[in-house]
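Reposting from the mailing list since nobody answered there.

I have sequence plus structure tokens for a pair of proteins and want to know whether others read the tokens the same way I do. The first protein:
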Amino acid sequence: MRAVIMAGGKGTRLSKLNSEIPKPMFPVMDKPILEYQIESLVRCGITDITIIVGYLKDVIIDKFRNGKNYGVNITYIEEKEPLGTAGALFYLKEEKDDFILIFGDLILDVDFTRFMDFHKKNGAGITLFVHPNSHPHDSDVIVSEDGLVTDILSKTNSRDFFYHNLVNAGLYCIAPRILKGIDCPSKIDLEKGIIRKLIDKREVYAYRSTEYVKDMGTPERLMDVVSDVKNGVVRARSLRNKQKAIFLDRDGTINEYVGFLRKITDFKLLPKSAQAITEINTSPFLAIVATNQPVIARGEVSVGELEDIHKKMETELGKQGAFLDDVFYCPHHPDSGYIGEIKELKFECDCRKPKIGMLTRAADKYNIDLSQSWYIGDTTVDIQTGRNAGMHTVLLCTGEGGKDRKFDVAPDYVAQDLLEAVQFILNTEIR
């Protein structure tokens, strides 16, 4: 597997810090960004690397040369003039194998093998590495259905609707066949000139991951990246390593409990929910929702309507700087006899809480160690679910948790709200 690194940019926004080095060579903890990228590739066994150079190219070439000192084989493609984010891909159109493309201003540590496996499984022309972020309102948002990208919502367009928080990280798997239309090395924008044209051809897929990929193209972001490298956050988030998560119920935990939530207008975030989830986002834990939604099987809410409710949840959280790493839901219900019910969803499944199917699916997807994870919910069913999965648990006094209750199984802690629960977990060392 080959990796191609786009390292020809000027880094205009960082030039006030140092105008004598190209952006990919900016040091983080006394090591350039490019070196971190190369190390991450090597950890996945990728040693054949092409670096596209341009501005101050000699700084890069003098540092890495043929790559022998870094355990890799490096070749270079030079942009004689700026070719945008895709023009230089002209020189790779005769490649025989699919390759990884990395923008040179990213600090990352990614399991590239998982990424490429997803790409090849779907037979994609190009696969985007996507993730939620803390500012989706000023980011281009990816729209996808079962991984297939159907649209890109530009940050420059006004959004008066709800949307899933999913943004492009600047990391790609590319099949050389999509480059055949590049006739010469001219200036091309990857998104506008290639990706958007491939969406209607069903050639674009989105690979969702919780791994650390961050653009350090501004002085402020560079400071954040330095802190995350120093604290070990970047390496820890690689899916080569076991992850830990805080799983969250939805109704009565994140949003106000109204019984069966059927209308999007009835969805309202509980006070402090966004703050609590923000604290998870800046911790070693992932924030994942696992919720029973029998209203689907009962025919009271369609899958599309549930998606709209979840879009509202993600949009409202994003406005306050919070995001969910993923959302899992169970649409099933075992009992029949409801008017309008969906009969094919009426069966005993493995995912309806207190069964643990949603948790094990999340664990498989994100390499989560459930024994080092927590479940927070407002019912004893939530607590039983967590215990069934070998997790630690917190019961909330919000939602149904505010009722008089007897514990069928005791939680590790009882909290007044989600923020108290999260702060308890973050201050507790799991042994």
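The second protein, same order (residues first, tokens after):
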Amino acid sequence: MNRILAFLMVALVWACQKPQKGPIPLEELTISQILQAYQNGDFSAEELTQAYLDRIQAWDSLTHSISFIHPEALAQAKAMDEEFSKTGKLRPLHGIPLIVKDNINTIGLPTTAGSLALADFYPGADAFIIQKLKDAGAIILAKSNMAEWAFSPMHSESSTEGTTRNPYHLDHVPAGSSGGTGAAVAANFGTIGLGTDTGNSIRGPSSHNALVGFRTTLGLVSREGIVPLYLRNDVVGPMCRTVEDAARVLQVIAGTDPKDPITANSQGKIPVDYLQSLQKDGLKGARIGVFRTLSEANPDPEISALFEQSIADLKSLGAVVIDSVGVENFDSLRRNQWCPVFKQDLERFLADYVKRDTIKTIEDVIRIGTTSDYARSGLESFRESQLPENMEQDCGDPFTDLKRIAFREAIEKVMDSLQLDALIYPSWNHPPALIERFQEDYKGDNSQVIAPHTGQPAFTVPMGFTAKGLPAGLQFLGKMWSEPTLIRLSYAYEQGTNHRKPPVLKK
């Protein structure tokens, strides 16, 4: 009896001393840290997913960045835990909670593009890249708010969720159109995020929210199952808190897709492992050109000072900086590059995916209506827009459109002649605007000027903060298919400067 009593007392003492799990430290958690935590048994995917859901519930009322929570998110996480328990193996993105922009088809969630017209559209299949991310183990946590129909680079206002606010300063914009993903990932509502970029919409919100944003070579990643703006320009890509996380996402989503023919151009151009480019000394001996044609275009003094500091930092990290670089006939080559094909691209999407008699045309969308004055004027302008007579020649992709090819060749010719690895300029020359003045104070958006038209990759990485605490981004422009080089450069800059810091949310 005494023995039993002694055993029970020891067991009770042991139970009392057994360490209890505390809350998961969500702020700035990376993919590699999470995978290591799963290996160590520190927490499970289900526990991590619940922690993110709790954080969204507690804080998203401030930012309005999340449109829809996936009702099966916890079930997905539990399935990942059960798989790991059985196999002892982790997939590349095993149990990693992902926030998806609300123009990307995702089973179990509406894909609305922020509009009333698609408010009840539930796609019958995942977009190509969503399936690839699921296969890699990612958990679809939520859809994020966006500028309605992806029209606005300035702000992110939709008919489904309203206006998203910048978590660093709630009365300022997060930029558009992927502002919901930008604000949510910056505020640590999920581990990784997806945005789309027609002219600015990955890099602008990433710059405005102290994130890393990859606009990759047009043709590297499939756009199948994504509501288009101008398909000739559209890309989809990662928006993350670190270069490494963005590279891990790119590792999964890059590749050819028969349903997106432009991806055939990527054959033979995708490395086996993008992660090999994560080199802390990656700037040593790198040749970087300063593109002052953009950086000197009426910059805000604070952004200009941050850019000059970034140049000094690049030099201190071992880069050879060529200051500055000019492109012959740049002003004339950049003109007349846009082609307003939204009406045609949207109506094709409606026919291929939505398949409803009540919504086949842009006129149907206008009839259904919108709560956004900005979206309303955009829809009207696209209804009236006139396309060139020779649309195939004048509205083609960057591999066939002669204007786009000439623009790219002029830039790459200079880069080749100076043996440059990249050109740099601020992602925006001005800080985020006040929401109430989003149109008047829309200034300095450099992301629209080159990459959307030439097809070249352009990455933004945090460059620092203004005195008011508003983020700014440094943009690296590379030659076609130079993602490994841009990952190496941006990673080395990120690791050498450590500008990223999370916002402080207060109610």
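Reply #1 (J.P.):
I read it the same way you do. The two ends are 58 Å apart (CA to CA).
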